[in-house]
TrEMBL record:
The chain crosses the membrane at residues 22-42, 62-79, 91-115, 121-138, 150-170, 176-199, 211-229, 241-259, 280-302, 308-331, 343-360, 372-391, 461-480. It comes from Streptomyces broussonetiae. Residues 24-484 form the Major facilitator superfamily (MFS) profile domain. Keywords: Antibiotic resistance, Cell membrane, Membrane, Transmembrane, Transmembrane helix, Transport. The keyword Transmembrane helix applies. Residues 486-505 are annotated as: Disordered. This is MFS transporter. PANTHER family: BLR6921 PROTEIN, MAJOR FACILITATOR SUPERFAMILY MULTIDRUG TRANSPORTER MFSC. It comes from the Bacteria. InterPro entries: MFS (IPR011701), MFS_dom (IPR020846), MFS_trans_sf (IPR036259). It is found in: Cell membrane. Pfam families: MFS_1.
């Protein structure tokens, strides 16, 4: 196994390029794809798992929530942990843990066993996600190569959720819901062997873990994600919703106060106060909120109203994945170096808004080619442009010892946005559906009327997603600086990030 240190510095003082850097990229992308898949891979398998393990409809939400809670709540902690104790070690531990949890989940013989396995998956996903992005940011030093690497990684990050629907549908229909868990073992084996062989031990930050900050941040994020999850399935007025949301908000306010006074804070304020990085984090938050309009409700529409099977509805998302990859690579390699993040992120959000607005034209007899193909391709292109710029920008101009926590901020924005999106859009859909039935039906509704009511809920969600993306475009455009990222945006040169930031307007 390889235990060597990172490549030695060259004559200029910059780290020499790792000759195996493209293989390292493949290992990183494999691991992160596994994490992204599990956000949705179980969604289409839930009915089969419910029938097999005999749990109630009310318990179904916990198969998804058990993964999301620790994932969203522990990202900042594990991001900093990777800086302090080593990214290779964090990466390998995360891969092993995720594989073991997946094996246990696949073999689950009870609801409790499956939920526990999903929660453990979420813990190790929170360990893996920031380590992956930090390893990417510190492995590539040449600007052109870094653009290509981030383009590839962005395509994986943006399309993993949709790919999870495809794989989940195929495995559930072709094999068993248990293979939605077992499939992770193949990804984990490849990532672990590659990581052991290729990854270098990197220099570690000399700071200590900020335990008060960990407690405040973890408690705050856990409470927010839990509160939004309850809102999605119960009601905004229940104490388990507003109580946890209020608690989460209060803890995060205390966290923001604490990090300005702590000697070695969990999240150094300089990470989020930079306009470019802050704009990238906000953009990912809006994307996470709005994208569930297409990832969740479009799948509902295809299955419940158009009669698509799990595999057909999953495959129908393929154009979105392809255009996401195209947008991420073109944006990351060609456009970002020349124009900077502001036009890419703003345009990407507006393109997503246009795609969601196009989806509002659906009806009970809509055809895939006429009503769904175009909008999903448009949304995919927009997502690719956003992620190509946001992932690179979110880790730009940070010192090597802060790469893990900066990467965690990107993932935290996406996870928190997803929790908000599911809760908000579920509520909007339910309200619109109920309102349509009250206005148009007297007595017991027919099947056709129920379908029309559901479509009213979907189109209302699509309009809200349109607005979310559009507002995100405006806010991100105001936050992000014009022009390309500075030439000093090379995390591994050893130049202190504060020097480059202080010289900027």
């Amino acid at each position: 196994m390889a235990t060597s240190a990172a490549p030695a510095a060259g004559p200029s003082g910059a780290a020499a390029a790792d000759p195996r850097r493209w293989l390292i990229l493949a290992v990183i992308c494999t691991a992160y794809l596994m994490v992204g898949l599990d956000l949705t891979v179980m969604n289409l398998a839930l009915p089969s798992a419910q029938e097999s393990l005999e749990f109630s409809d009310a318990d179904r939400q916990w198969i998804v929530t058990a993964y999301a809670l620790p994932f969203g709540g522990l990202l900042l902690f594990f991001g900093r942990l990777s800086d302090l104790f080593g990214r290779k070690e964090t990466f390998l531990t995360g891969v092993i843990g995720f594989a073991v949890a997946s094996a246990v989940g696949g073999a689950a013989n009870s609801f409790g066993m499956l939920v526990t396995a999903r929660a453990c998956q979420g813990v190790f996903a929170a360990m893996l996600a920031p380590a992956c992005l930090a390893l990417l940011a510190t492995t590539f030093t040449d600007p052109k190569e870094k653009a290509k690497a981030f383009g590839a990684y962005s395509g994986v990050a943006a399309s993993g959720t949709a790919l999870g629907l495809i794989i989940g549908g195929a495995l559930t229909d072709g094999l068993s819901w248990r293979w939605c868990m077992y499939v992770n073992l193949f990804f984990a084996a490849a990532a672990f062997l590659g990581g052991m062989t290729l990854l270098h031990r990197q220099p570690r930050a000399g700071a200590k873990m900020d335990l008060p900050g960990v407690l405040l941040a973890t408690g705050g994020m856990f409470s927010l994600v839990y509160g939004f999850s309850n809102a999605a399935d119960d009601s905004w007025s229940t104490p388990s919703t507003w109580g946890f949301l209020a608690l989460g908000g209060a803890l995060l306010i205390l966290f923001a106060f604490w990090i300005t006074r702590a000697g070695q804070p969990l999240l150094p304020p300089r990470i989020v106060l930079d306009r470019n990085r802050g704009g990238a984090y906000v953009a990912v938050l809006f994307v996470g909120t709005g994208m569930f309009g297409v990832m969740l409700f479009l799948v509902y529409y295809m299955q419940n109203d158009l009669g698509y099977s799990a595999i057909t509805s999953g495959v129908s998302m393929l154009p979105l994945i392809v255009l996401t990859a195209v947008g991420a690579n073109v944006g990351g390699m060609k456009l970002l170096p020349k124009h900077g993040p502001r036009p890419l992120i703003s345009a990407g959000l507006l393109i997503c808004a246009a795609g969601m607005a196009w989806l509002t034209r659906i009806g009970p007899d809509s055809g895939y080619a006429t009503h769904l193909l175009g909008p999903t391709m448009i949304v995919g292109l927009g997502l690719g442009l956003i992620f190509a710029a946001a992932l690179r920008t979110g880790t730009s101009n940070v010192a090597p010892e802060d790469a893990g926590i900066a990467s965690a901020c990107v993932n935290t924005g996406q996870q928190l946005g997803g929790a908000i999106g599911v809760a908000l859009l579920n509520t909007i859909a339910a309200t619109a559906t109920t309102g349509w039935l009250e206005d148009n039906v007297q007595g017991q509704p027919t099947g056709d009327q129920l379908s029309l009511a559901a479509i009213e809920g979907y189109t209302t969600v699509f309009w809200w997603s349109t607005a979310i993306f559009a507002v995100g475009a405006v806010i991100a455009g105001l936050l992000l600086r014009p022009g390309p990222l500075p030439a000093t945006d090379e995390d591994t040169t050893g130049a202190p990030a504060e020097q480059t930031e202080a010289a900027r307007p």
